Amino acid sequence: MYDGLDGFLPWRASITLDVVFLAMFLVIPVMGWSIYQVKYRQKYDLHKKVQLSLGIVLLITIGFFELDMQFFTDWGQRANESPYYDAATGSGAAMCALWIHLCFAVTTAVIWIYVIVQALRKFPKPPVPCEYSPIHIRWARIAAIDMSLTAVTGWTFYYLAFVA
Ligand code: HEM
Predict the structure, then answer these.
(1) Are residues 85 and 94 in contact, defined by beta-carbon separation less than 8 angstroms?
(2) In this predicted structure, what is the pLDDT of residue 126?
(3) Between the CA of residue 48 and those of 34, 87, 95, 114, 142, what are the distances in Å?
(4) pLDDT tens across 9-54, in order?
(5) Ligand 1 proximity of 50 Cβ (cutoff 6 Å)
(6) Which of 106, 125, 146, 163 has the fewest CB atoms nearer than 10 Å to its CB?
(7) Most ligand 1 atoms within 8 A of CB, residue of 133, 135, 136 to mutate
(8) What is the pLDDT of residues 85-136, one digit of tens each?
(9) Are 16 and 65 in contact (CB under 8 A)?
(10) Which of 34, 137, 145, 149 to mutate to test the pocket of ligand 1 (most atoms within 8 A of CB)?
């Protein structure tokens, strides 16, 4: 059975799985740096540009990733060698990890779109603190934590399915 292009990392994942796995090692520090810039250095415009770029890059990457997962890569076939997954029954710790990961990934996508759209609408241009700040700060913190948990659970799934 055809199950997508082999990735470039030395494990069993396909190319888009490798790209997303590695991309998260970049996204998390860049997001942390952007939050540091706005919180401690008042670089509002820089924060806006970085968060918008992250949002766009993630949207494009996840778009390709989803197309690959739906139509090309049979990840279960690739995970079959793992002691944490049984392709015949679709069970194992890897499956459990995937469901936990999906809970974070789906809520992250929704919250990020909400935070970005609202920030673009409510902050002045160029962005500076205003009466909308407390709402942005509350939801943006949730968005950042959710994104971090999406990364950690995604790496865990990747390890259980394609490395172990
Ligand atoms: C999902 C995307 C975003 C995330 C995760 C995010 C994250 C954050 C966080 C965590 C803070 C609070 C830092 C603190 O604790 O003081 C913050 C502040 C801020 N963000 Fe964002 N942000 C995002 C998008 C945006 C966008 C698109 C804009 C501009 C249109 C923006 C403008 C601001 C401003 C002006 C502040 C300062 C608020 C204040 O201190 O009064 N953010 N952001």
Answers:
(1) yes
(2) 97
(3) 8, 43, 36, 14, 17
(4) 999 999 999 999 999 999 999 999 999 999 999 999 999 999 999 9
(5) no
(6) 125
(7) 136
(8) 999 999 999 999 999 999 999 999 999 999 999 999 999 999 999 999 999 9
(9) yes
(10) 137
Q: Whose CA is nearest to atom 12 of ligand 1?
A: 137
C-alpha neighbours within 13 Å on the C-beta side of residue 22: 11
Of 11, 22, 14, 21, the C-alpha closest to 73 is: 14
Pair of tokens at residue 31: 């997001």
- Residue 116 zone, left/alpha/beta (φ > 0; ψ -120 to 50; rest): alpha
Instruction: Kindly list the distances between the CA atom of residue 81 and the CA atoms of 17, 38, 119, 159, 162, in Å, as whole numbers in the listed order.
Output: 17, 45, 45, 12, 8
Vertex 146, ends 140 and 147: CA angle to 5°? 90
